[in-house]
Structure formats: C-alpha cells, structure tokens
Amino acid sequence: MTKAKAKASAKKIKKEKKISKKKSRKTKMAKDNNRKTFPTSASVDEKKEIKTEDLILMQSPRGMHDILPGDQPYWNQIRRSLNHAFLEYGFQRIDTPILEYSNLFVRSIGKGTDIIDKEMYTFVTKGRDDVALRPEFTASIARAYIQHGMNILHKPVKLFSTGAVYRYDRPQEGRYREHRQANFDILGEQDPILDAQLIQLAGRVLRGLGIKNVQFQINSIGCPECRKEYLELLVSYFESKRNKLCHNCKKRLETNPLRILDCKEDKCMQVSAGAPQSIDHLCDECRVHFKHLLEYLDELEVSYVINSRLVRGLNYYTKTVFEIWSTGEGKKYSLGGGGRYDKLIETLGGESTPAIGFALGLDRLVMEMKRTKVKLYKETKPRIFLAQLGELAKKKSLKLFSDLERSGILTAESFGRGSLRSQLRTANRLGVDIALIIGQKEALDETVIVKNMSSGTQETVSREKLVALIKKILKNNNVVSVKPKK
Ligand code: AMP
Predict the structure, then answer these.
(1) Per-residue model confidence as pLDDT tens digits over 397-425
(2) In this predicted model, what pLDDT tens digit does every residue of 314-328 receive, in sequence order?
(3) DSSP characters for 18-63?
(4) Alpha carbon of 458 to ligand 1 centroid (Å)
(5) Which of 66, 105, 302, 403 lies 20 to 30 angstroms, CA to CA, from 213?
(6) What are residue 458's DSSP bridge partners?
C-alpha cells in the first residue's frame, strides 16, 4: 500500500469510529431518557464518556458526588435512625458553619496530621480572613461550646450534628473529598461510663440501619503526662528500625511518631507489630479509666477487640480511642471512629472540660447498606392519584390537590400532561389504591369519579363528601394518612 493510500484508509477508519461512537452515545441518551426510575449514584458513576472540554460543566468536582433520588431511601433510613438515636440518648442538635477560621482546625487537630498538613480546603476571603471548609466536626463543636458559654449548662452537655465535611485526599472507592458525617459529642464529664454509652450508641445506630457485621476496636493512648514517657520509648524503638520504615514514616518519626502505628505499608506494619504498646504504659488514672470502660462494655454486652495500634489521625485525643470497622467479605472500611478529648476545650481557651465524641461516615454507611443488601423501610407512598381532563378540570383539580394535601392525604398527580389513558397508566405504575378523575362534566357538577384501582369499580361522589370517603377507604385498606396540617 502506498503512503497516501495508507493515510486515506486510516482517515476513513477514524471517521467510522467517530460515527459509531456518536451513535452509541445517542442510544445511551435515548435509553436514559426512557428510564422509568431515577438512577442511583453508582449507575451514574459508570458514565465515563464525557469529553475533557465538557468536564467542568458536566461533572461534579473530583471526589464529590450527587446523592440522587434513587439513593435517598438509604439516606432517609440513616436520617431516621440518627434522629431516633440522638433523641433517645438525650442529645440536642447543633448546626455550625461549614467554614471556620483555619487556625481553629490547626490548633485542634494539630500540625503533623494528614488533615492539617495535606487535606484541608483553605482559602483567603475577600476580607482577607484565612478560612477552611470543615474537615471534621469536633473542633467546631468545641469552639461553639466556648463561644456560647455552654460551660454553665447542666453537665454533661450532649450535642449532635450532621453534615458535609471536606478533605483533599486522593479519591477512591469509599474515600471522597466531600463526605457526610454524623457527630455525637458529650462534654463536661470524665466518667468512663459515658465512653461506654457512646460506643453502645454507635452500635445502636448501626443496628437500626440493618448493619450487623461490624467490629469495635478500642485502645487507650493515655493522657499528655503518660504519653510523654510512652512516646520516648516509641521513638527510640522506631529509631532503631528507621531503615525499615517507609519514606512517610521516617518523616513521622520527627513530626508525629504515634501515626507510624497506623501506617498501612506492609513493612511499617511489620515494624509496628513489635513496638511498645500504649496500654502497657498508662498512668494510674488512665489505666483505671480504661479498665472501667472495658468493664462497662462487658456489662452492656458490647463486643470489642483491643487494637494496640489504633491511634486515630487527630492530635486532640486522650485516653479512649475507638473505631468501628466493617467485617464482611471484600475490602474492610472504617465506618466511624472517635475518642476522648479531655484537653481540647482548654487548648482552645475554655475552662478545663473533659469530653468524648465520635463520628459516623454516612457515605460509607450507605455503601455498607448496599453491599449487605439491608432491608429498607417502606417509604410513605401516595395511595391516591389525581387525573384530570380539560382546562376547567385542570383548574378544579389544582384546588382539590391542595385540599387533599391539607387533610393529610398524600396524592400523586400529573398536572399538565397526558391523555386520561396515560394518566391512569401512571396511576397503575405507582400502585395507588384510588384514582380520582375529574373530566369536563365533573368539573361543572362539582363531583369527582372515584376509581378503585384493584377492582376497577368506580362511583361519582360530590366534592364535599370526597375527603371523608377517601379516608374511609384508606382506613379499610389499612393505610394511615399523614398528619393533617393545622
Ligand atoms: P475520621 O474522623 O477520619 O475517623 O472519620 C470518621 C468516619 O468518616 C470514618 O470512620 C469514615 O467512615 C468516614 N470518612 C472519613 N474520611 C472519609 C472520606 N474521605 N470519604 C468517605 N468517608 C470518610
């Protein structure tokens, strides 16, 4: 083949490829348009066909995802379980800003941690304030506790918060740059019974979600006094094995030696296996605290394992630290974690206030719920469908819809589109008990056709009697209507 011929045939192949790619994109779009149910985040993630130049317009920022209606049943289950748990355990909800002054986090979480050194989203505002998107909740809770003088409240002060947190990490499955957490904090009490209660509460939330296969890992990293001595021992141990540590851990030896213990590099894990353990070097107070915590957990029949390498990635922790791990098949994820932070409020300028808290990673909980195929609660679904035909009927049905809604009767409709046949098809698809039909005649007569969708029978009812009749039918069908609005 001549050079010119080869060039022409390469051009032809390229053109054909382009056409077939275009065609397959069109079929995919058509398929998506015909989709009857909302996609879930997982099915959307599979779409990787977007051109680079469209990326900024067509994609959420890297490591951040939409929570689509298809996934909301999982999130609703989480919201419901959290709401029950925080009320039952006497917590009050607090919402803090998504932004704080950066130095709040630097002071609380501490330099030498991954969050502060690498992962914070910081920026300077137009007013030259140095701010950061919150990478976690506890620092904000501590700030709010001091700012609003909560030290005068009856102790312990139990605060619950939930929302998005931001960490500029390398995104991968289960690790996002924006993820959501639920955070429980108990301030003003040092009794280990609260450590135990908080761990029990975490278990309660997970059980409420249907997540069963989890493991609680517990450790005590002592207080600043006993940790000083322990750190000296640890540093001298790791110094003696310096060549066997990864590049990062060599640096951690200077900045944050505790973190070497939870490095996931094989060679570091081997070195850590022989390292001194913090629980062998606790002062009397910390040892007794830990002993009592374990006794309380036994009493509560909460099973746990002691993980002497568990140190957590934030510097404010003292004494108890714990994490909750999935234990099913495949990759294991930490679903939540927390610990005591008895010195944090003081470090930030408040009065000495012992405290303990934990956070659950909600996106991870959704992953786990999907993986283990938990049973979802039945969502409240409309049992009534309102269909209309003609301009006057449309007007009348708008008012009827509002009357039904005020009476607490959840109603579906498809205002503004479709023949009566297609509207009834929709009613069928939604699985409602009753279809209400208003045509031209009914609109003039102030009546409504009430069609029983399972038997197919129908009757014409006057508008005044309609709400009472619907309530009666729903009651007979064992459907509870939502509470009427005042
Ligand atoms: P941490 O304070 O880092 O232990 O975070 C508490 C929980 O949030 C963890 O146990 C995870 O379940 C979850 N989590 C932490 N970082 C991420 C992330 N980058 N993406 C998703 N979930 C996360």
Answers:
(1) 999 999 998 888 999 998 866 788 889 99
(2) 889 999 999 999 998
(3) HHHHHHHHHHHHHHHHH-SSPPPHHHHHT-----GGGHHHHSPPTT
(4) 55
(5) 66
(6) 451
